[in-house]
Amino acid sequence: MTPGDLRALCLSFNGAVEDFPFNPETSVFKVRGKMFALTNLDARPLKVNLKCDPEDALRLRTEYAGLILPGWHMNKRHWNTVVAGGADNADGFLPDTLVRELVEDSYDLVVAGLPRAERLRLDRP
Predict the structure, then answer these.
(1) Where are the alpha helices (DSSP H) in 33-115?
(2) What is the mean pLDDT of the chain?
(3) In the chain, count of helices (H) and strands (E)?
(4) Are 48 and 39 in contact (CB under 8 A)?
(5) Is a pLDDT exceeding 50 seen at residue 89?
(6) Helix axis angle, 3-11 to 96-112, nearest 10°
(7) Is the distance from CB of 35 to CB of 75 less than 8 angstroms?
(8) Burial status of residue 100 (CB atoms within 10 A of its CB: 0-12, 13-18, 19 or more)
(9) Residue ranges of the alpha helices (H) in the chain?
């Protein structure tokens, strides 16, 4: 996955915006003010912090050791750092389809935690 692909994916969700609250290099993707992805799009390898169900987080870290890690500078129970592209290890790369699913899952978890009225606003065209 390229940095452009990751940015486009994150911005493709209803209500998603890119913000730079920490520094000009760190893209924070939010929905209704809540973060669902955090990345430095210029970093190599390309990594992204994503929210994850705690049980799934542990399973994914085991299944994709070295490519899915506890969330760097995040609550490690609820966040993973995902090597989204440009990493090479014995197992190769994470498939783009998996990265897309993980980004979508992160967005969905954040939206599910929003008040009902906020969720309904996202469904409107």
Answers:
(1) 54-63, 96-112
(2) 90
(3) 4, 6
(4) yes
(5) no
(6) 30
(7) no
(8) middle
(9) 3-11, 54-63, 96-112, 116-123
